[in-house]
Amino acid sequence: MSRSHKFVILADTHVGDRTKVLEPALFSAIQKERPDQIFHAGDVCTPEVIAQLETIAPTLAVQGNRDWFLGYKLPKEIHLEVNGLKITLAHGHFSIWHWFWNYVRLFITREALNNRYFQRELARQYPQADIIIYGHLHYSANESMDGKHFLNPGVGYPEWRNNFHPGYIILTVDADGTFGTSLKFVNPQPETTV
């Protein structure tokens, strides 16, 4: 018999890369959610983050472009089925060449590719998925397009693209396969000096 599931989704924590530790306020908020499982959509940057999240709930993570650069080996994508709902977890950078040409384009045109561009590409790449979870852009998204739902929690540390409030998404999947989502942000804890 199927049961309801509660997932926490986060991405782009960049610990050891752009920040020293997993944001304490984010960790505390995830703990309070009491999820059944955690999905990390890449740019984890260090295995210690997964070990820390595993103290809350079993954690699945995929490789982001920064993970690739740092030599942290994770799967490029994970496909799950939860109560009949097909879920794909990916970072969203597609390949290192795609990432590179995206930055060349940004440098030349000064225009970033938006969530819709990435969602169309992800839908083309994962036609079987009902829900596609991704990161990479550091901008959050919780929206549907062409019969698919796209979830991007934004960046997991204080940064200008999230108004310095790390984000995460709650995904609940009911026993009948219906689902609900909620995008949440936390107030970061100020650094203390000794």
Question: Can you lay out the helices and strands and say which pair or pack?
Answer:
Elements: E1 5-10, H1 24-33, E2 37-40, H2 47-54, E3 59-61, H3 65-70, E4 77-82, E5 85-90, H4 96-109, H5 115-125, E6 131-133, E7 140-145, E8 148-153, E9 167-173, E10 179-185
Parallel strand pairs: 1-2, 2-3, 5-6, 6-8
Antiparallel strand pairs: 1-9, 4-5, 7-8, 9-10
Low-confidence stretches: none
**Distance from first to last alpha carbon:** 53 Å
Query: What is the CATH C-level name?
Result: Alpha Beta
- SS class: alpha/beta
CATH architecture: 4-Layer Sandwich
Count all strands and give the number. Answer: 10
Q: Helical content, roughly?
A: 25-40%
Determine the CATH superfamily: Metallo-dependent phosphatases
Order of helices and strands: EHEHEHEEHHEEEEE
Major sheet attributes: 5 strands, mixed
Strand order of the largest sheet: 3-2-1-9-10
Quickly count the domains. 1
Helix tally equals: 5
CATH topology: Purple Acid Phosphatase, chain A, domain 2
**Percent range for β-strand residues:** 25-35%
Mean pLDDT over the full residue set: 90
Q: What's the shape?
A: globular
Evaluate the radius of gyration: 16 Å
Walkthrough of the structure:
By secondary structure, the protein is α/β, with parallel strands linked by helices. It has a single domain, classed as 4-Layer Sandwich (Purple Acid Phosphatase, chain A, domain 2), CATH 3.60.21.10. About 25% of the residues lie in helices and about 30% in strands. It has five helices and ten strands; from the N terminus they run E-H-E-H-E-H-E-E-H-H-E-E-E-E-E. The strands form two sheets. A five-stranded mixed sheet has the order 3-2-1-9-10, with helices on one face. The termini are far apart. The model has no long low-confidence stretch (mean pLDDT about 90).
